[in-house]
Every structure is written in structure tokens, then in C-alpha cells.
Write a structure and sequence with these properties.
heterodimer; A: mainly beta; five-stranded mixed β-sheet; 9 strands; globular; B: mainly beta; seven-stranded mixed β-sheet; four-stranded antiparallel β-sheet
């Protein structure tokens, strides 16, 4: 899997938008960008994924740059329950390929 | 999203005993499941890929005779930690592949905290 680079940690005030960046400059044409998060002592939770177009679901929005070398996960109105480690992963699809986790970004949402 | 059930949530065992962890896909069939291990304050490390009806594929450095994986059906994979020792104490997490619209998502179980005394 292509490697990703994320900031180690970020803070965000409750109610504000949380913007989590990810660099994946070596991404291949058949690789999707996936975002997962892990709340303490739980299994990772799927958030969103995309190939080249921006995506939005009930949890978040994913903005992918035109050259696909970076992306941003946006939590529009962060709450305390969004405090977690967020992982950006690039992975080919179409086959049962594994997810390789990096170190992720620890997001702390504060009052 | 799809549901992956993992059992037990936590287990304490004596050194030298074996522990079995179950991973079930509740509302879909998973031909492929993955097993991860996570030490405190570290990221998830892939241990092995489990394919229904065939032998598991282990990552480099993972002892296949110590971590036995069985994927006998499309909804169940088990990980057995044999002759557990304190250094095997960790958080074990399974995931199952859920194909939809030709784009796969992986859904994860809630994890099993293993403590070996």
C-alpha cells in the first residue's frame, strides 16, 4: 500500500469543523483513499472513502486534490464523541486487499 | 454499516494456556477476514489474512504455529493463541471484507483485550 503522512495530533473546539489532512503523494491510479477512526479501546470505524471526486456522507466529507496527492477529512461540527485517532489509508480495491494502518492523527475535541 | 461481532471482549488467562477468539460477520458473508494486533499507544499491526476454506496467510514475523487461524465458514473466523505468554498480552481485532458496488469496505470487530498472567 502507498504510504500516507498525517499530523500526529490536532485539537478542535466542540461545534467547530475539524479538518484532518493527509498526504499520499505516491498514490497509484487504482488506489482509493479510505478514512477510519478508532475510539479508545474499540475497533476501527469506517468513515468514508473516495477515488478522485469529493465525497460526503452522514459522518464526514472527503476532499481530494485534483492531483490526488493529498486529501482532507472534514467533520463539519465536531463533538466530544469525535475524539479519536483518525487513520488515512490508501488501498487498491476490487480485491480483498488488506488495510495497512499508519500512526494516524489523534484528534482531541475540547469544550 | 455491516456488523462484525468479536467474542470475547476481554479474557484473562494463565501462562501456557490457549485462548480462542471468534470473529463473526452477522449480516453478510465474508470470504476474507483479517486479524490485527495492537499494543498500547501503537497502531494496528496486521497479523494474517484469513480466507474461507484455505490456509491463512501470515505477515512476516508472525508465528503461524502460535497464532492458529481457522476460517471454516463464510461468517466465522477464529484466532487461537496457543501456549500464551505475557508478551502475547495485547488488543486483538478482526475485520471482514464487505464488497458493495465493487468497492470494498472493511468492517471491524470491537476487539479482544487479552491479558496473560
Amino acid at each position: 500500500d502507498a504510504k500516507t503522512t498525517q499530523p500526529t495530533s490536532m485539537d478542535c473546539a466542540e461545534g467547530r469543523a475539524a479538518n484532518l489532512p493527509c498526504n499520499h503523494s505516491t498514490i497509484s491510479g487504482n488506489e482509493y483513499v479510505y478514512w477510519y477512526r478508532q475510539i479508545h479501546s474499540q475497533g476501527p470505524q469506517y468513515i468514508i472513502h473516495g477515488l478522485k471526486n469529493n465525497e460526503t456522507n452522514e459522518m464526514a466529507s472527503l476532499i481530494i486534490t485534483e492531483d490526488r496527492k493529498s486529501s482532507t477529512l472534514i467533520l463539519p461540527h465536531a463533538t466530544l464523541r469525535d475524539t479519536a485517532v483518525y487513520y488515512c489509508i490508501v488501498r487498491p480495491t476490487g480485491t480483498a486487499s488488506k488495510l495497512t494502518f499508519g500512526t494516524g492523527t489523534r484528534l482531541q475535541v475540547t469544550l | 454499516g455491516a456488523v462484525v461481532s468479536q467474542h470475547p471482549s476481554w479474557v484473562i488467562c494463565k501462562s501456557g494456556t490457549s485462548v480462542k477468539i471468534e470473529c463473526r460477520s452477522l449480516d453478510f458473508q465474508a470470504t476474507t477476514m483479517f486479524w490485527y494486533r495492537q499494543f498500547p499507544k501503537q497502531s494496528l499491526m496486521l497479523m494474517a489474512t484469513s480466507n474461507e476454506g484455505s490456509k491463512a496467510t501470515y505477515e512476516q514475523g508472525v508465528e503461524k504455529d502460535k497464532f492458529l487461524i481457522n476460517h471454516a465458514s463464510l461468517t466465522l473466523s477464529t484466532l487461537t493463541v496457543t501456549s500464551a505468554h505475557p508478551e502475547d498480552s495485547s488488543f486483538y481485532i478482526c475485520s471482514a471484507s464487505f464488497p458493495k458496488d465493487r468497492v470494498e469496505k472493511l468492517f471491524f470487530g470491537s476487539g479482544t483485550q487479552l491479558s496473560v498472567l
